[in-house]
Write a structure and sequence with these properties.
alpha/beta, six-stranded parallel beta sheet, 14 helices, Rossmann fold, 385 residues
C-alpha cells in the first residue's frame, strides 16, 4: 500500500478555472510519480460559491461541488480527495479517513495556509506552508495584517530569490526552501503549433488580493504592469490572444486592449476544465507572460506554473522578468524582458526561429520543472522524503 501524502489547496471555490486547478494538481501528480498516494484536501464553505452574477446560492454551491468532483476524476484522483463542507460534512473521503491519512503521512503540504481546520492540522506530524504568491503572505506578516505562518514547521516558496539581499520580499525570520512550479511532463507532451503564430496567456487581471503598501512602495497587480505593454501587438507581426477575467469596472482597460489589437477571450470559456486548459495552451505558438507588479518590483524570482506548462508543451515563453533570470536559462525557449522595447525584441527573436525556441522550451521544462524532480527535491529539503 502506498504511503498517503496530503496536499491542501483551494480549487472548489473557483469553478470553471482549469488552469487554477492544474497548478495545485501538479503537486499531487508529482507525489504520485514518486510512489505516494496523494490525498487532495479542499474546503467549500457556504459563502464561498457564487453564481455568474456574483451571488451566493445553494445552486452555485452544488455546481461548484460537481465541478470539483469532475476535476478530481479527470486528474486521476477520483478516490483521493476530501472536500470539507459546513457542519463537518465532506464529499469524497470522510473526515475520519482524511484525519487518518494525514496522521500516517510524512507531512502535510498546505498551499498558502488554506486549510484552517485545527483538528486536521493537529494530526500532521510536519506542517509545510507552501507559498505560491511570494510577497503577499510575507508582507501581510510584516505589516501585522495576518500571521499566516503560525503553526507551520517548514516554509517553501516559488520565489526563487527570497532571502537574497536584492530581493524585497521579507524572509520574516524563516528559512525558505525554494522550488520551481512542478509540471507533469507525461501529461504535458510537446504539441505542434498552429500555422498562424499566436502568443497567448490566460490568467487574472487583478486576482484575489489587493495591492499592498510596503517600504514606501505600492506593490500592485497584473493590471498595473499590463498597462505598460498595451502597444505590444501593434509592433509585432503576430496575434496576441489573452483570456483575462476582466471585471465590468475595468471597461476602460478593456477598451485600450481592444484598441491595441489584443484579442480578448473569456477565461471561463477558454479553459473551463483541465482538458480545456491544456488545449488552450497547446493550440498556442508561444506565451506572453506579464506578471503582477508585486512580483516585478520585489524581484522575488516568481515564475508562473502556467509558463511551465507552455515550456513543457514546446511553446516558447516570452516572460516579464521577476528576477527568475538569476537561476533559469534565458535567451532560447525562455526569453525575458523588462521594458516594452525588450518585449518587442524578444517576440521578434522567437518569431525568427520558432523551431529552435520550441526545442529549447521543452529542454528547460525537462531540466528545471519536471514534477518528480521538483517535488522530490522539496521532500528532501524539508526532511520528509
Amino acid at each position: 500500500m502506498r504511503t498517503p501524502f496530503p496536499v491542501a489547496a483551494s480549487i472548489a471555490q473557483r469553478p470553471g478555472y482549469g488552469g487554477h486547478a492544474c497548478a495545485f494538481l501538479q503537486i499531487a501528480w508529482g507525489l504520485r510519480g514518486l510512489g505516494y498516494e496523494p490525498l487532495f484536501l479542499d474546503r467549500l464553505d457556504a459563502g464561498m460559491a457564487v453564481d455568474g452574477d456574483g451571488e451566493h446560492s445553494p445552486q452555485a454551491h452544488d455546481a461548484a461541488v460537481r465541478w470539483f468532483c469532475d476535476v478530481m476524476a479527470a486528474a486521476g484522483l477520483a478516490d483521493s480527495y476530501c472536500l470539507l463542507l459546513d457542519e463537518g460534512e465532506t464529499v469524497g473521503r470522510t473526515r475520519s479517513e482524511a484525519k487518518a491519512a494525514i496522521a500516517a503521512a510524512p507531512a502535510l503540504i498546505d498551499v498558502m495556509g488554506f486549510l484552517e481546520d485545527e483538528e486536521l492540522l493537529a494530526a500532521a506530524s510536519l506542517r509545510v506552508f507552501l507559498d505560491v504568491d511570494p510577497g503577499f503572505p510575507q508582507i501581510w506578516n510584516e505589516l501585522g495584517l495576518a500571521d499566516v505562518f503560525a503553526g507551520y514547521d517548514r516554509f517553501v516558496t516559488v520565489g526563487g530569490n527570497v532571502g537574497f539581499d536584492d530581493c524585497l520580499v521579507p524572509s520574516c525570520g524563516r528559512d525558505w526552501v525554494k522550488i520551481k512550479p512542478p509540471v507533469d511532463l507525461d501529461r504535458w507532451p510537446v504539441a505542434a503549433s498552429p500555422e498562424e503564430t499566436a502568443f497567448r496567456t490566460v490568467g487574472s487581471w487583478r486576482g484575489p488580493f489587493g495591492p499592498v503598501e510596503f517600504d514606501g512602495r505600492v506593490l500592485g497587480l497584473r493590471v498595473h504592469e499590463f498597462r505598460r505593454f498595451f502597444d505590444l501587438p501593434e509592433r509585432v507581426p503576430a496575434r496576441f490572444e489573452v483570456a483575462l477575467d476582466l471585471d465590468p469596472a475595468d471597461a476602460a482597460d478593456r477598451e485600450r486592449l481592444e484598441q491595441n489589437d489584443w484579442r480578448l477571450l473569456d477565461p471561463a470559456s477558454a479553459a473551463p476544465t483541465l482538458d480545456g486548459y491544456k488545449q488552450f495552451i497547446q493550440a498556442s505558438s508561444a506565451e506572453i507572460g506579464i506578471a503582477k507588479s508585486i512580483y516585478v518590483q520585489t524581484k522575488g524570482g516568481w515564475f508562473s506554473d502556467r509558463s511551465a506548462c507552455f515550456l513543457a508543451s514546446g511553446k516558447p515563453v516570452l516572460a516579464q522578468d521577476t528576477g527568475f533570470s538569476r537561476d533559469l536559462p534565458v535567451g532560447e525557449g525562455l526569453v525575458a524582458f523588462n521594458s516594452l522595447d525588450e518585449a518587442v525584441a524578444g517576440a521578434r527573436e522567437i518569431l525568427g526561429d520558432q523551431r529552435r525556441h520550441s526545442r529549447a522550451a521543452r529542454e528547460i521544462a525537462e531540466e528545471h520543472f519536471e514534477s518528480r524532480r521538483v517535488i522530490g527535491g522539496l521532500l528532501e529539503a524539508i526532511g520528509a522524503a
